[in-house]
Amino acid sequence: FDTSAPETVDPSSVPQPKDDFQEELVIRPLHSGDIYASFQFRTVWETDFMRGNKVSHYRLFPKSLGQVISKFSVRELHISFTQGYWRTMQWGQPFQPSPPGAELWVWFQDSAECKVYAAGCVDGTWKELTNVLSGIFCASLNFIDSTNTVQPSASFKPLGIGNETDHRFLRYATLPREIVCTENLTPWKKLLPCGSKAGLAVLLKSEKLFHSSFHSQAVHIRPVCQDWQCKTTSWELRQTLNVVFDLHNSAQGKREWSLFKMFSRTLTEACPLASSSKIYIDITDNPQGEQFEVSPATPLLSQAVVLGDRRTFSVYDLTQQITFGTVRSLNLLIRWKSSEGDMLRPLLHAERYVAGYGLQTGEIHTLMYNNHPYRSFPVLLLDSVPWYLRLYIHTLTVTSKGKDNKPSYIHYQPSKDRLRPHLLEMLVQLPPNSVTEVTVQFERALLKWTEYTPDPNHGFYVGSSVISSLVPSIVAMDTNSTRERPLFSSFFPCKEESSYFVRVYTEPLLVNLPTPDFSMPYNVICLTCTVVAVGYGSLYNLLTRSFQIEEPSPGLAKRIANIIRKMRGVPPL
Amino acid sequence: MLTASCCYTDRRRGQLAALSIAAVVIIVGVPLWWRTTETYRAWLPVNQINELANLQLQLSADVEVVFARGTVTPEQQKKVPTQVVISLCLFCSSPLEADLSLHTLSESPCGSLVVYVIPESSTLLPEDVDVYIGQRRTALLRIGAQMRVGRTLEQLLAHLEPRIKQVLQVMSFSHTDITAALSDRVRLSPGNKESIADSMRAFKSSPGYEITFSLLNPDPKSHRVHWDIEGAVQTYIQPLLTKLAPLANFSIDSQTLYYAMLGVNPRYDSSRSAYTLNSDSLAHVINPVEARLGSNAASSNPVLNFLLYVPDAHHSPLHIHDHKKQEVLSNAFHSPRWGGIMVYNVNGFYGPEAVFPVDININMAKVMGVFLAQLRLLLGVQSSAPPPGFLVAPCSSTGLADWELDRLMWSRTVENVATATTTITSLAQLLDQIGNIVINDNIAQQVSSAVTSLQLAVAELEAGNLGFALQYSKEAILASERAFFDPSLLHLLYFPDDQKFAIYIPLFLPMCVPILLSLLKIVSEARQKRRERQAKKD
């Protein structure tokens, strides 16, 4: 080695990295005895993907996603894969809501080449993007096409900076049928700088994560402000993973949870690349430790305003060696003392079902509950219904407390067969302490026989309705988006102190369509051909045969006599 | 008697009806069935494709020979044309045909050469050097001693020709280059394994390449490694790629991968107090790393990977050993058509008392020197040893002489032409063999444009316009690949025949059998009648 080489250890000459990585885990014991764990990994990088230069040098930010952003001029990308349905009434609001199956929504950059023919250009990019993402995440996102893509006009506003709200640059699609499993988790873990080798990500073992009631993993990319004045912007990649472990399934009914029991791993170190690595345990309902007991105890407490509520958390800082204690391993233990206590009912929740009988018509019912005792608030309802359920939009009724509730805004885009789905968006005011019911009738279309799925009698999925709302908050929300806050409380930007943003997804629907017998085409061919052949045959016979009168054949006695006469050599009768 | 004639007319009518139904079925039904069930097959230039299949390549390079003062006597000067152009045909039946023709050139364009003939007494070149190859497209040739006196012009040219040929082989193309480029089509003669290895090392010709530099840091707890890759790429790699821009598009990116392990456990060598990687185990190093590298999501061009591996603190220093158990000086190796790996030991830069993690700045000059050499190899810039008596000018700052670029362009053009013809001919063969494949108009259009570009490329090669030839060959490759991989070709590819019969038989069998039977009956009756008439005559 030549000693003149500048490999010296000199911290002052080391350039300050422009990227930053944080990780955290929030554990919330649920009243049902289940446990909710939410992982958040955030990479922030002060860079500009949209500049013309082609050279890109990645450190913490994953290269594959960076290339996607710059190639497809993406301004915001949100993708989630969810297995199971989040039960709002049992578990409260999740930190990041997501519908069952796969959901993808993307805001595209208003780029120069897409200015003139915006719609067609963005559609082409969207198609290519879904194909690339399906390769990155090993998911069937390539099944996203024009028949399940919509452009919501109001429900999905950009979560990052930028005030572009022209919904021609927005695409939203869900695949409610998508099944999430290990092959989606592995590429997701690969995007983390430490992979699954160190830090909180060592807990992400698929054999435990998928043995749960609810599993949701997501990737959110958006531009964010670096400082209060928003002088510099940077790109934020937020990877989240939410999982709910079932009391009976994973804990054999014992109200006692530990990291090892949940993930079959314990923690020994933080990711060395992370600037912060923390575990939060929600102890709001347990101020004096009468509900459950957490060990090892931590002196660190933190308060955060999340989802309109001020909550208290015990904090374990993994970057401090003392957290791991003498055994050099952290295995958090939560042991319940009593199974009593009531959960605060979530202020907003919704459900949906399909009604009616027979295979011709039906009715979709969406119920939205406002549990606030005295405040009414508006909600935006987004429904994207496939074209094969033909909505009768004149039958749309919105009723609350038995009275007609006229939506103040309706955006309806009718479907085109095999081209695009129905899009129904409306702004409905929910009266306090009420149930609002939205019903619309539909007719089931007959599909072409190649359009049926391999198991058509299972039914066809209709994606969740999305309900977005600003719900009145009990406590003042934090509107400073750049202040240091726990990651889980800083996902949705907050514009005013008095309300907070909530998105609620309903159940996806499973609708039976009239399903033919699939040997039918061949049967039809055979039957038609036979009918044609019978008709043709008789016609042909009539046309070509010549008919002549024939002598009636001689009787039996005469024939026998003739045979005898023949034998005797006498001429026959 | 009356009844008989009635029967006869009745029969006659029946026969006529049968005949007319058969006629209608044949005249209307069969064409209708044919037209409604045929697959659409656009017209393809099959003849031209077949012509391309037995490809005759003729490469010619312009060589300008300039005689310096003192090499030609004044009377010869009168006879010598101002410029001499030698065209070489490598692919004709006779191995080489030299052709002298006249040409005027102001400056040397892409693919051409200028040879300056200098007198033997010139002190420009060192004693034992006969030919000097410059950085541009020029060479200096020292005239032989035996040519000093009593020479005629013919003798002089006859003396120069083999040497100019030699210069051309070094600076433009040699037979081995071209056969290597054509390795897909030409069976290599056994014995030149070296050239096979050379041709296998370089990436296949492609319209674009992605170059990815990855810093592998398996131990971020101990080493906080910093590399100024952006500056290094600007300084070392970009000049070369700018030079290579006519050949292909290059895009560069870099990434840092943490906790990326090699696939083999290095062995501890106590005599050297270092860890060693044997050359045999290098083959297993790449696989586990490759899973982490990730493919480029945004393009489908081939990726050249360059990995800089910083061994973790417990396995340092790490050295690569060659077959003779000697340390490899550069501590790097490359994998053909994949990329290169360099091991960069950092344990010497901190003492045992250092506090982890240690900040380490990587010396990019050292790293990029290795990667640049590997990049040249992988791109196919050949640096075979020049023949004795040749002196090659040292590399310029761009890392690539003009004639080296030309050499690369020659072989790439030939390779492109070969690949595109293979693609087009195999597509034509496939379409010819499988009648079910639909050929849409856009595929036909791609095929014809590929064929046109190929013909143009071959013509330009023949004319010696290297730049245009390369351009056309690239277009040919793009068009042929687009046609070959078009998804519309697959739509009806696997439509089985038994299903076709299953659909046709219920309709065709009951319809055709009566027609056939009645036709047979008519024929047999007609024959019988003729026989009766014959018998009556007799």
Describe what this molecule looks like in 3D.
- The complex is a heterodimer of chains A (573) and B (538).
- Chain A has helices at residues 63-71, 88-91, 118-137, 182-190, 206-209, 247-250, 259-263, 520-544, 556-568; strands at residues 19-29, 35-45, 56-57, 74-83, 101-108, 149-150, 170-175, 214-225, 233-245, 256-258, 276-282, 292-295, 301-306, 309-317, 333-336, 348-355, 361-370, 377-385, 389-400, 403-404, 409-413, 422-430, 434-444, 460-462, 466-472, 499-505, 509-511.
- Chain A is elongated, with a radius of gyration of 33 Å.
- Chain A has an eleven-stranded mixed beta sheet. Chain A has a five-stranded antiparallel beta sheet with strand order 16-17-23-19-20, with no helix packed on it. A five-stranded antiparallel beta sheet of chain A has the order 21-22-18-25-26, with no helix packed on it.
- Chain A is α+β, with helices and mostly antiparallel strands and 573 residues long.
- In chain A, a hairpin with a 5-residue loop joins strand 16 and strand 17 (361-370).
- In chain B, helix 5 packs across helix 6, helix 10 (402-433) runs antiparallel to helix 11 (441-463) and helix 11 (441-463) packs antiparallel against helix 12 (466-484).
- The relative contact order of chain B is 0.13.
- Chain B has a five-stranded mixed beta sheet with strand order 1-4-6-5-17, covered by helices on one side. A five-stranded mixed beta sheet of chain B has the order 9-7-12-15-14, covered by helices on one side.
- With 538 residues, chain B is α/β, with parallel strands linked by helices.
- Chains A and B meet through strand 3, helix 1, helix 3 and helix 8 of A and helix 1, helix 7, strand 9, strand 16 and helix 13 of B.
